[in-house]
Amino acid sequence: MHETMVAQSLLATISEEAARHNAKPIAAKISCGGLSGVNDEILCFAFEAVAKDTPCEGMKLQIEHKPLRAKCRNCSRDFDVDLSMPKCSECNSENFELLADAPLLLEEIELQTD
Amino acid sequence: MKKVDVVKKILYANEKYAFENVLFFAEHKKLCLNMISSPGSGKTTILTRTIGDLKDRIKIGVIEGDIQTDIDAERISRTKAPVVQINTGGACHLSAAQVNAAIKKLPVKDLDLIVIENVGNLVCPSDFDLGENAKIVVLSVAEGDDKPIKYPAIFAKSKAMLINKIDLLEGGLVDFDIQRAKTDARRLNKDIEIFPVSARTGKGMNDWYAWLTESIKNVALLKTL
Q1: What distance in Å separates residue A20's CA from the closest CA in chain B?
Q2: ipTM of the complex
């Protein structure tokens, strides 16, 4: 993934929101899907670098990885897919279709209020 | 401390242009394919052969993405097909904004199909939606049959997969278990269409042409692929 691009985009959105509320941002919650390939360590490092000397400096990022989901064509159940061993977790069938992957989202920002 | 719900797509800048491109292709009823593979898998050769073989039936326009040079655009130009080169200057994938600018330089009304040849890279281009109708992945036998399981995202997201350079399999020049590549790709993506081809000799290309022809027809009728 392109963590630096993601970090820059995050910085722009968070700065905008923080300015609107006239408060300092201290944390943000992000979520992504199983195919998005976001690496937590690289994203946090990139964010730290782009946020330096901005009101976002020192912010904590919490990154939630939502599992990739699939629908089994044998037992009709939805399940979490492990791409290294892709099969239905209920009936072990390999006949399934992938459901839409969760998008890369900025979900929530925590602002300091005092 | 106060929590603010935002719920905003982080790659919104790209998605905004991708959506514009979706509308553009839908409005013109044209099929747009985003072709993705490792460097050297034969994307340009597949295109030049396809353009030449189908020239009396299908008009194809090409958007060429490369880090630098217009070598590929020149190869496409020799077929007389319209082509726009995008040089990314180091970036490893095309963005929807670059494609948005490029489609305006193509004679889209006169075309049946627009192919975006993405920068050679099996990883990053799969993350950036360009507004295409479908992604096409190319895997050449020289790369190894383990690629679908090692780089799952692009195989999971593609409508079709071309296994290229199958002429190398004859005479055992390359160890590539074609059944393994197919099985692994289908395990990720049950409906993926698979075309083993040699763009050099022309072997297998007719099935790919039939799929293209059918897909162009479906888009013109506004059916989803």
Answers
A1: 11
A2: 0.81
